[in-house]
Structure formats: C-alpha cells, structure tokens
Amino acid sequence: MKLIFMVLSTVIVMTTLTAKADDTLETKDFKSSVMAKTAGSGKGVIVVLTERGEVAADAAYLLASQLDHNPGFKPLFLAEESDKLDADMKMLSLTSESLPAVIFYSKTGKELGRVVSALPALKTHQMQAAAY
Hints:
single chain, 4 strands
C-alpha cells in the first residue's frame, strides 16, 4: 500500500510541477527561475536539481516529502539535460557527485541551505534494513 502511495504521490507532484510552470525552463536561467517562484511563495522555494533519467523519479519523491515538512515553500523541480545541468552545477559550485541537490531559498532569493547527494527517506531506510 505504501508503495502505491509513493508512486501516485510522485506522479501527482511531477504533473503538478509541470502544469504550474510559468515558462519553459530552457528560456530562463536558474536564478530567474528561482526568483519567479519566490514571487508567489509564502516563505520561499525548495529547488531539487538533478539529471534526467531514473534518478529524477527519486528526486521528485524527495521534493514531495520536503513540501510536507516545509509549508509555505513552493517547489521547483529541475531535471535537466547535461549541458544546462553542467552550467547550473558550475554556478552553484556543485559536482556531479552532489546530485540530486535540494536547495532552500528564502522569499527574497537568498540561499538558506542545501542538502547534496540526497536520497529519499524510503530508500535510506531500505538500505539500512538491508545492512542488518
């Protein structure tokens, strides 16, 4: 039952994030994307930056779980192609080992904190259980 809920949550979050996009991210740079989201937020923005592929689904689940714990923050999910991803990682001083990255921004666009090499909580628990 929990697995079904996780899958449905991920699909809903990804659909919502896609439906609420103001412009395509290809036409805006990272900072303007963050600032556009902060304009309508209560407290700020939670950005998840990751490469495309299988890891993107895990990163979307990670973003969904952060929204429950951070009311008032708007989500910004960025699963990018390698050329755009490389440019954003360079600007943020991230390495490829740092992905997926969760970055919190205030309503004014100031970075509040970040978590790099983030894994969804469920995967962490599964990995810990397998170790015993």
